[in-house]
């Protein structure tokens, strides 16, 4: 009994499908002793059972997929020799070859998405660069003076670093009880402008900025004013100029949208009375009062219990009007200044309806504006607050931060999972994610919320880190750093070979180190120029080779350790039907300290790609069997 949900022979078509699609599902090696086989198919809204028809060499069923976007699951019920048993996906998997169960099994996944779903093509063809504004580059020292004066006039704590090379503050300031991210280095918008040519040389076509709006912290996720650039960074005219100069270099600018909460010290809540206009904390006379949920005793609902972050009701009409639909809404305000879209902070804590409305307004302005969500898990099956989320199915996000890729890449390179495990993960995203979203994924290895990739791979710490005080004392030896450097090369090679938009966290191109916040938010410096050259080689290749942007992808395990990724175009058209030259590039990753003799028969690779494409690929290749050596802790790129 065999069914492989990732191979067209067993499921036609493979991968995610649009609403109302037709599909054929087959079960092979069903001998004459099998008297009956059924497909049990279900979703949130239906449960159906289909009796399969016997063909010459299999049992199959041709069916029409639901017209409603969502996740559909299925498994098989089989009768043989008077016994009933089941066939479903292997434990922990939703694609690939299945297994027999005595009881209700794990199900295979079919992702059903909207027919008209598309994403900006510049995302799938581009390379992103993430900047934490205070720590990237100082362009105008007067901004530091203005920022200090402004925030201190509000009674806010401000600590200015004397030297760019100092370490961020990680504990309470003298005389204070708790840590407060109120230390500033003076990075600003002028500084980013001064680096635009450097970013262009690196091959960047999109800058993602952590929040730039006024806020009483260096990270600015506790918004004080949604429409005003924080004075430490400059002003709105500076941002407009940044966007204009970036556009001249064909670079998009994406802003952080923080819409699940505001700061308590803000125009909207005004708990400290710093703003002339009454805020929600002053009572019902405030036009912002309905944004928030107050209790009878005056307490209020806050984000994860942090009283400094009062939570908003995102579906409140006044809030929606202010952020999305009003004539001078927050999103329209920044788009008018030149922004190309938004990354939604904690997207899985925003209601789907809010995201749908935001997307609709955004795309009505210009279809190539981008909407990216912060989601840490599988974006198609994410469930939050008891609701199965549908923001990845065509009416919401264009893209999501691909944290699962970072977790699996690091686990693989650290030896915690095999090449086969890594292939299985890559295949699951390829088959489960809607194609437009899959090719626009924000593929990251580091961010402001996780340790830098070089540090993770040098220390071997993935997802588990000690306290801030212990991190401050942690020493990365030169031997550890060399390991981190070598493995980071491999991680970036994978990042640039899988479909999606690779994202470089500022300084990673120079091998910067950093554990958790705030150590991962250190000031930019050119730590390792050899690493920069390695990254530059990959960014150049990514920008020059259309096959790496919108070509098909085949994932293989060459042996227990070596991962193989083949990107190819076989019919002079890419996955979106755009004209391209036929090409095939093979990446081999060897994270071990041993040289490997590799032999791969590409004609045997069948998962995740249609049979017609694979047949054309075999015809176009000069050879389908690749025999080569994979050097230890290195990658190899072969043109076929």
From TrEMBL:
GO terms for molecular function: hydrolase activity. Residues 130-542 form the Glycosyl hydrolase family 13 catalytic domain. It comes from the Bacteria. Keywords: Glycosidase, Hydrolase. Pfam families: Alpha-amylase. InterPro entries: GH, GH13_cat_dom, Glyco_hydro_13_lg-like_dom, O16G_dom_2. Belongs to the glycosyl hydrolase 13 family. This is Glycoside hydrolase family 13 protein. It comes from Anaerostipes amylophilus.
